[in-house]
Amino acid sequence: MSDTRRRVKVYTLNEDRQWDDRGTGHVSSTYVEELKGMSLLVRAESDGSLLLESKINPNTAYQKQQDTLIVWSEAENYDLALSFQEKAGCDEIWEKICQVQGKDPSVEVTQDLIDESEEERFEEMPETSHLIDLPTCELNKLEEIADLVTSVLSSPIRREKLALALENEGYIKKLLQLFQACENLENTEGLHHLYEIIRGILFLNKATLFEVMFSDECIMDVVGCLEYDPALAQPKRHREFLTKTAKFKEVIPITDSELRQKIHQTYRVQYIQDIILPTPSVFEENFLSTLTSFIFFNKVEIVSMLQEDEKFLSEVFAQLTDEATDDDKRRELVNFFKEFCAFSQTLQPQNRDAFFKTLAKLGILPALEIVMGMDDLQVRSAATDIFSYLVEFSPSMVREFVMQEAQQSDDDILLINVVIEQMICDTDPELGGAVQLMGLLRTLIDPENMLATTNKTEKSEFLNFFYNHCMHVLTAPLLTNTSEDKCEKDNIVGSNKNNTICPDNYQTAQLLALILELLTFCVEHHTYHIKNYIMNKDLLRRVLVLMNSKHTFLALCALRFMRRIIGLKDEFYNRYITKGNLFEPVINALLDNGTRYNLLNSAVIELFEFIRVEDIKSLTAHIVENFYKALESIEYVQTFKGLKTKYEQEKDRQNQKLNSVPSILRSNRFRRDAKALEEDEEMWFNEDEEEEGKVVVAPVEKSKPEDDFPDNYEKFMETKKAKESEDKENLPKRTSPGGFKFTFSYSASAANGTNSKSVVAQTPPATSNGSSSKTTNLATSVTATKGSLVGLVDYPDDEEEDEEEETSPRKRPRLGS
Q: What angle do CA 41, 45, 46 make, to 5 degrees?
């Protein structure tokens, strides 16, 4: 059934009095055996499924509106509408309905609408009172007419009757002629009555009356009547605004006269609803539901007509991207698209889907890329709004475009990089545009809205692209403002609030805070991508430079970034923090803050409290061994004492474990259980953490699969036999009952020397100067310690790790081996 005359959209009215689109199909009227009568059937054009099956009930009131709409109520609180593509199709179905109900097809409503609560009373009324008798339309009767219109508003039945009377007698046009007479005579009282009358007629909520009132012939006089509100000392000048101030701009001439008329009408009716009419009270909120529907269907029609006119849209795009187009014209074109996208928000999901797909097909994204890079602030702002509509509609569509573009373009002109640059270069002191763009970027890099299909994973593809092509642009301001040369000026322990590291400029501080917020989001939602990036760029050290900022909100952003990293409880991150001595700037900030009880103080303490409560052993040991002396004076919270207690308890536990380890190993010499091997290996790593100050040895990740161990089992057994004879010789020498002598102490100065060393194998050193001698001392110290412990639980993992290092860039070689 390809006949476009019968093509319709089915709408239902929801609880919020908004029309929901149920789909597009073709309508027919046929006899349905099950329903025992002629019925309206709508079959979906996509798959032929039944969208609507509705018996034409002889007593149902059907209304024809705007030549292409048929509206009726199927049951209480269930309103339906058919919106026809063509007037001829609407007329055809309307005739069928009228035929079943025995009505003349020239009527707009097939039945008098009855409110069920008043049905009985209505039946008792004498036939003579079927219609309301309207007073003659004269100047001296205006007060009587106004009283009549206001009196019927409380009764649904009387409202219907008055509407029919007004419609049948062409009364509205007569009233508007009286308005012109009153204005000419400056009859203020009459004009006040006309305001009440016209407002009351709008509240009758009848589409047929709206069509008369909002026609080109009448609408300006209707607006004129509504200027003379009795509550106002002086009448408003709405007509002057609509005719002189409000200008209809055609970016490209619209040749379709029907479309032009529709746009004018919709603008004016929206103006009446939003500006002229007072906000309806709770009791009046349903009075204007038909007016809302009138505007809604008009907007749907406008978007559909523009969307179908591909020649018009293609011309708009061509001019938008043409270098020869002058700035004023381009500004108007971008503003047109912004309005167009705003209109599309009234569409139902399926229509909106088709709308944005049309824009994508015509090349909206390449066009936006050009426009967003322009100097004109207004154009950029409008382009950002359009981009936000697209991202909100389909982040995947934007991501797909950007990844395809990356194969042909340089990084500098990629759409996402253009967006990031706009964010960085926002001239607004409050960074309003930057905040909006940051929100859009967050949506684009959010794995929650990325699709995973059988043949490809959008998440891994897009994040690889983003970290390779875009991340360096995002972090550039951060790295510039915390650069190496600036860091060297402030390389002393303790902070200097006036140093050159931290931008004093409030706007730059705000921008860095936005970038940190986005990076913090990445830490939470991207796993290895952000981890590799942080370690390769030594990013956390650079971020923590901002702990010195005079802007507390920026110091808190830096702290929040570190807190998210620690919150992951990832040993890779923990080793990176301890080796780099990255708690130092945080502890300095706490000490500099002094006795002030503020947000910074609470946030720092919460960070340490989290480490204590979660019992993160490697961090606890590092803090206690290096910073406890500076922190022990803080007694208004028990956090630091608690950390010391945890540290000592763990130390005792490890000492006890050291005593029992050799016998455990001997008694289970030939155990081939992979899980047990994993436990032994974990024990060896934990022991090394304690012996070597937790900084030197990389513990095995908890998540390491068990399958890794059986492959190395034979090698393990051979080496174990060779080592076993050394066990007895190499037991640690006790210095006191239950304790061991630790010759290695990890100091802050050693940390400063080694912190620049790469944690990830492929990371270039951040600062190599001055670290070699300190590293040598550290390594010597470690070796000395390890010499006294070798063979204790000495699995052959040194050789294994060397092999693994070549394949796993994330594994850190142990300095002591």
A: 130
**Is the four-CA dihedral 597, 602, 603, 608 of positive or negative sign?**
positive
The whole-number pLDDT of residue 164 equals 87
Q: Are 511 and 548 in contact (CB under 8 A)?
A: no
Distances (CA, A) of 240 to 212, 333, 777: 22, 26, 86
Q: What are the tokens at 409?
A: 């373009």
Which residues are CB-neighbours of 546 under 8 A, at least 6 positions away?
481, 482, 501, 502, 512, 516, 554, 555, 557, 558
Q: Name the burial class of residue 800, with classes exposed (0-12), middle (13-18) and buried (19+) by CB atoms within 10 angstroms of its CB.
A: middle
Mean of the pLDDT values across residues 485-506? 49
Q: From CA 186, how far away is CA 681, in angstroms rounded?
A: 99
Spans of all domains in the chain? 4-101, 132-308, 569-654
| pLDDT top residue among 416 and 682 | 416
Task: Quote the CA–CA distance of 135 and 487 in Å, as a whole number.
Answer: 89
d(CA 480, CA 467): 18
The answer to whether the beta carbons of residues 5 and 86 sit under 8 Å apart is: yes
Contacts of 522 by beta carbon, 8 Å cutoff, 6+ apart: 445, 529, 530
391 to 344, 388, 403, 416, 526: CA distances (angstroms): 14, 5, 15, 12, 20
How far apart are alpha carbons 568 and 563 in whole angstroms? Answer: 9
> What DSSP string runs through 421-490?
HHHHT---TT-HHHHHHHHHHHHHT-GGG--B-SS-BHHHHHHHHHHHHTHHHHHHHHHHHT-HHHHHHT
Two tokens at 639?
Answer: 């956090």
Count Cβ atoms below 10 Å from residue 11 Cβ, excluding itself.
24
Q: Under 8 Å CB-to-CB from 472, ≥6 apart: which residues?
A: none
3-state SS string for 169-213: CCHHHHHHHHHHHHHHHCCHHHHHHHHHHHHHHHCCCCHHHHHHH
d(CA 167, CA 144): 19
Question: Does residue 540 carry a pLDDT above 70?
Answer: yes
Per-residue pLDDT at 126 exceeds 60: no
CA angle 431–500–576, rounded 5-degree value = 85
Apex 191 CA angle, 185 and 194, nearest 5: 135
The tokens describing 258, both together, are 């029907």
Q: CA-based diameter of the chain, in Å?
A: 123
pLDDT digits (tens, 9 = 90+) for 623-653: 999 999 999 888 899 999 999 999 999 989 9
444-480 pLDDT, tens per residue?
999 888 876 655 677 888 899 999 999 999 999 999 9
Give the tokens for residue 169: 């007698």
Q: Of 243, 211, 214, 225, which Cα lies nearest the Cα of 178?
A: 225
The predicted structure's pLDDT at residue 106: 80
**pLDDT recorded at residue 346:** 77
- The answer to whether 33 and 22 have CB atoms below 8 angstroms apart is no
Closest residue by Cα to residue 107 from 88, 90, 96, 94: 94
Mean pLDDT, range 363-380, rounded to an integer? 86
pLDDT at 619: 94
Say which CATH architecture domain 4-101 belongs to: Roll (2.30)
The pLDDT score that the predictor gives to residue 571 is 93
Q: Report whether pLDDT(379) > 50.
A: yes
Q: Which residues contact 276 (CB under 8 A, 6 or more apart)?
A: 223, 226, 236, 238
Q: What pTM did the predictor assign?
A: 0.59
Cα 2 to Cα 7, 26, 43, 46, distances in angstroms: 8, 8, 12, 12
* Cα distances (angstroms) measured from residue 194 to each of 189, 212, 236, 279: 9, 17, 15, 20
Which pLDDT band, with edges at 50, 70 and 90, does 784 fall under? Answer: very low
CA distance linking residue 147 with residue 142, whole number of Å: 9
- For residue 129, is pLDDT > 60? no
